[in-house]
């Protein structure tokens, strides 16, 4: 009984948090679909924070902690660079081998159309990229989901951690299908698997993932804005 109760609690927490993300997103789709993802994950993160405190835990126990010591500080840069390399590698692989057969849905560009020629919307989406993409997605999917899955499965040894990484990647990819389509969801799922693997390799440290994710999101939004600016040819 003492072993079953924590595992059941972990499963309940996971279902509540992921279920909240799904329900709020569906409710938001008919109101403001472009912001359905950020709003739903904000609600999920608030609920996860409350559940962790109720269990006597903190986000530091789920990867959101800065390790002490100069060695950890020195490792942060190469870890972040490795994360960026994984992201670029997966993106290039998708564009080369999968995009011709499973292209990203047009909704992916429609979602960010407001950025065109609008510095205000650029700042808004950069903020969303940092807070939602960088922090909330990594906290919920890599930190909360992976570690709650291992708690439910009974530990992190053997096959349990790899299975948890694959499951969260599938969930992460499916979450993006509503505006990216099947092709985008598959690419995002593969990215999620790479992020999960890095989370494991970095000894459950979310910071390299957060920095890399926020940085690429910021760059992506900025490039969309710059591409939309009319270039005046010299007379």
Automatic annotation (TrEMBL):
Keyword flag Ribosomal protein? no
**Does Mitochondrion show up as a keyword for this record?**
no
Stretches that traverse the bilayer: 12-29, 35-52, 73-95, 115-137, 184-202
Domain CAAX prenyl protease 2/Lysostaphin resistance protein A-like as annotated: residue spans? 121-215
Coiled-coil residues are: none
Sorted alphabetically, which keywords does the UniProt record give? Membrane, Transmembrane, Transmembrane helix
Signal sequence residues:
none
Q: What is this protein called?
A: Type II CAAX endopeptidase family protein
Source organism of this protein record: Hyphobacterium lacteum
Organismal lineage: Bacteria, Pseudomonadati, Pseudomonadota, Alphaproteobacteria, Maricaulales
């Amino acid at each position: 009984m003492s072993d079953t109760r924590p595992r059941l609690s972990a499963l309940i927490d996971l279902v509540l948090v992921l279920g909240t993300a799904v329900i709020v997103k569906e409710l938001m789709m008919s109101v403001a679909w472009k912001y359905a993802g950020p709003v739903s994950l904000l609600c999920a993160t608030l609920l996860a924070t409350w559940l962790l405190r109720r269990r006597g835990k903190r986000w530091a126990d789920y990867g959101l902690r800065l390790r002490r010591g100069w060695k950890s500080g020195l490792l942060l840069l190469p870890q972040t660079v490795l994360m960026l390399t994984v992201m670029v590698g997966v993106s290039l692989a998708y564009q080369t081998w999968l995009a011709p057969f499973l292209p990203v849905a047009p909704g992916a560009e429609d979602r960010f159309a407001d950025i065109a020629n609008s510095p205000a919307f650029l700042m808004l989406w950069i903020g969303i990229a940092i807070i939602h993409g960088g922090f909330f997605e990594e906290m919920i999917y890599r930190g909360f989901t992976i570690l709650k899955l291992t708690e439910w499965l009974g530990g992190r040894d053997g096959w349990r951690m790899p299975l948890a990484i694959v499951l969260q990647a599938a969930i992460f990819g499916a979450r993006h299908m509503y505006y990216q389509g099947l092709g985008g969801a598959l690419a995002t799922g593969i990215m999620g698997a790479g992020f999960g693997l890095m989370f494991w390799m970095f000894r459950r440290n979310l910071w390299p993932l957060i920095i890399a994710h926020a940085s690429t999101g910021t760059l992506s939004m900025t490039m969309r804005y710059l591409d939309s600016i009319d270039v005046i040819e010299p007379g």
